């Protein structure tokens, strides 16, 4: 495999490349007619392109071929082009791509083709190729370099374990989201994946991404009065946020991941041109608006094209479950001081995902890197959506953050990983002990100064966790 750094190139777009790959897949796979969805995973490993096929027929999933694509195959240059086309300087490209082919109208079906690109997850073995190695990571990053903050923790750990130095781009190499016109690129990417193959798992991923970052609201119909300090929206402003009437009589709050998306929707009802007045708002705040206002039945993000409509029960589930927005935002911004403040605040919470074993709720651990090793990294989460995107069958429990961290120490965990999908934060047991001891000492000193009796302020109760229920309509992410 070449070790030359990838550069932007002209040529076919990603959809055209996907269509070529899908045509090859349909020509070489021998399956019985009648399937609903063909899912084909692709990855580069050990100098080869590996493939795994899964065939969906209703609720049944049938595993198919898994192994390397034959050297010299005509599809290999197209797969390489797809990886190159997906590369963004500093951010990287996919480690695993999933091509999804939807079929309707057998015996002469029509096909819809989409894809899901995993830029951060560690590729898992599908056949006899074995686990991803530090050399695989090195080859990938030499070809498609990233900034340090975009190198996944698992890749850095593999390299450190094997003494491999990974290349890094300077911090400013990554293009800014605003410069591209997208205020929330992670949500936009999740919406693209949902639009290509809508299902509940991809819906949860959109909700997960909206637990941080910002979205745009169209407030063209508002009366905006400048504030005393030059604020665009002063206290005397009367805000009217764009809402959309649906064909079934329901009503949706509209939000956008970019000004271009809002402009496209604006032009549908403003034939004479012009531009909408946009307000940038926290994505969590947008979801909260829907949860708090009964006039909205949904929130629809980027409705002008392939968008995503999230129902009120799913929004309420996300907003009314305990969550830690400070920690989630800190991980997205790579802000360590904010992260620690969010973890150690007296009123902070964290969530656990659990399975019932022998009548007991047992928390889940991250899968270890080494085959056969005992799991030692306890998974904690910032929201119910973070748990459900990992596994919607998990029971979700919440606890005060400090109590959850002490539980990790008492259970013998060597590390704690906050969230299972990037961005994540990992703290060792030694770091946790130091942080908790420091907080307790500071509180002790404050009490001594005030002359108060010394008593454990937030000592864990016998059962201090709280169950988190699923959505009211039972159609979205829940406890299982």
UniProtKB/TrEMBL annotation:
<protein>
    <recommendedName>
        <fullName>SseB protein N-terminal domain-containing protein</fullName>
    </recommendedName>
</protein>
<dbReference type="Pfam" id="PF07179">
    <property type="entry name" value="SseB"/>
</dbReference>
<feature type="domain" description="SseB protein N-terminal">
    <location>
        <begin position="188"/>
        <end position="317"/>
    </location>
</feature>
<feature type="compositionally biased region" description="Basic and acidic residues">
    <location>
        <begin position="444"/>
        <end position="460"/>
    </location>
</feature>
<dbReference type="InterPro" id="IPR009839">
    <property type="entry name" value="SseB_N"/>
</dbReference>
<feature type="region of interest" description="Disordered">
    <location>
        <begin position="440"/>
        <end position="480"/>
    </location>
</feature>
């Amino acid at each position: 495999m070449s070790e030359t750094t990838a550069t932007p190139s002209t040529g076919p777009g990603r959809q055209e490349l996907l269509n070529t790959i899908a045509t090859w897949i349909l020509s070489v796979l021998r399956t019985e007619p009648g399937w609903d969805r063909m899912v084909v995973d692709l990855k580069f490993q050990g100098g080869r392109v590996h493939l795994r096929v899964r065939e969906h027929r209703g609720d049944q999933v049938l595993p198919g071929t898994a192994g390397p694509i034959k050297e010299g195959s005509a599809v290999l240059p197209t797969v390489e082009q797809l990886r190159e086309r997906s590369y963004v300087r500093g951010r990287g490209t996919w480690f695993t791509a999933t091509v999804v082919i939807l079929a309707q109208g057998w015996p002469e079906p029509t096909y819809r083709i989409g894809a899901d690109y995993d830029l951060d997850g560690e590729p898992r073995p599908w056949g006899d190729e074995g686990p991803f190695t530090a050399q695989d990571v090195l080859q990938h990053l030499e070809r498609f370099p990233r900034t340090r903050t975009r190198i996944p923790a698992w890749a850095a750990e593999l390299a450190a374990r094997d003494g491999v130095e990974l290349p890094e781009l300077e911090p400013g190499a990554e293009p800014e989201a605003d410069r591209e016109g997208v205020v929330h690129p992670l949500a936009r990417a999740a919406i693209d994946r949902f639009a290509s193959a809508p299902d509940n798992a991809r819906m949860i991923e959109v909700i997960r991404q909206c637990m941080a970052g910002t979205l745009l609201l169209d407030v063209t119909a508002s009366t905006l009065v400048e504030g005393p300090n030059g604020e665009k929206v002063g206290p005397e402003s009367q805000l009217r946020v764009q809402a959309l009437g649906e064909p079934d009589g329901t009503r949706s709050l509209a939000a956008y991941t970019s000004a271009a998306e809002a402009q496209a929707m604006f032009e549908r009802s403003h034939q004479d041109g012009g531009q909408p007045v946009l307000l940038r708002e926290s994505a969590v705040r947008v979801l909260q608006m829907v949860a708090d206002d009964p006039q909205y039945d949904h929130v629809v993000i980027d409705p002008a094209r392939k968008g995503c409509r999230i129902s009120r029960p799913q929004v309420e589930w996300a907003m009314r479950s305990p969550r830690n927005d400070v920690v989630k935002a800190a991980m997205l911004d790579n802000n360590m001081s904010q992260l620690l403040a969010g973890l150690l605040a007296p009123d902070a919470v964290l969530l656990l995902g659990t399975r019932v074993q022998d009548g007991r709720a047992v928390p889940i651990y991250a899968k270890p890197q080494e085959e056969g090793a005992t799991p030692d990294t306890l998974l904690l989460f910032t929201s119910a959506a973070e748990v459900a995107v990992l596994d919607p069958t998990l029971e979700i429990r919440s606890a005060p953050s400090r109590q959850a961290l002490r539980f990790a120490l008492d259970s013998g965990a060597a590390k704690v990983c906050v969230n299972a999908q990037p961005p994540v934060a990992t703290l060792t047991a030694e770091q946790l002990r130091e942080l908790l001891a420091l907080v307790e000492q500071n509180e002790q000193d404050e009490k001594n100064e005030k002359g108060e009796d010394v008593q454990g302020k937030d000592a864990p109760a016998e059962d201090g966790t709280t169950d988190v229920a699923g959505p009211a309509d039972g159609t979205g992410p829940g406890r299982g």
